[in-house]
Amino acid sequence: MTHEQWFDCLLACLVGNGLHVCFKIFSLNKDYKKANMEFSFAQYIRDDKWALLMDVAASFALVYLADEWLSEIGNYALNKIKSVFVFIGFTGSYVILQAMSVAKKRFRTVVDAKSNIADGK
Question: Is 72 in a helix, a strand, or coil?
Fold first, then answer.
């Protein structure tokens, strides 16, 4: 894999990460509005900073290892490599944030407490 291909794969993977994080922020913002709570982008970044850092680190690791896995694949796959790495970045980000995200857990805790108060518990 050339340096240009490596850079393209890394950029594509980070684009996939970014797309997933944007979808997550959009989803959290909708959830917060439905619960009559204020969403803060800065608070999200603070809450999920370790998960986001792990997400970026995993992207670097996957691209670093890609050379081993892609050396035996034909030209067709190499011509579609950016598309593959956007998908890898998006799905990898989903898995990592699903496992490590703190923001959604904190939101659910607050909503649960509010619903318990509303239920009179």
Answer: coil
Residues 17, 57: contact at Cβ < 8 Å?
Answer: no
27: CB partners within 8 A, 6+ apart: none
Domain boundaries in the chain? 8-115
Q: CA 79, CA 92: separation in Å to the nearest integer?
A: 21
Q: Which residues contact 38 (CB under 8 A, 6 or more apart)?
A: 32
What CA–CA distance (Å, rounded) separates 39 from 28? 8
Q: pLDDT per position in the chain (121 positions), as tens?
A: 778 888 888 999 999 999 999 999 999 899 888 888 888 999 999 999 999 999 999 999 988 888 777 766 666 666 778 888 888 888 888 888 888 888 777 777 777 777 767 667 6
- State the Cα–Cα distance between residues 91 and 120, nearest whole angstrom: 40
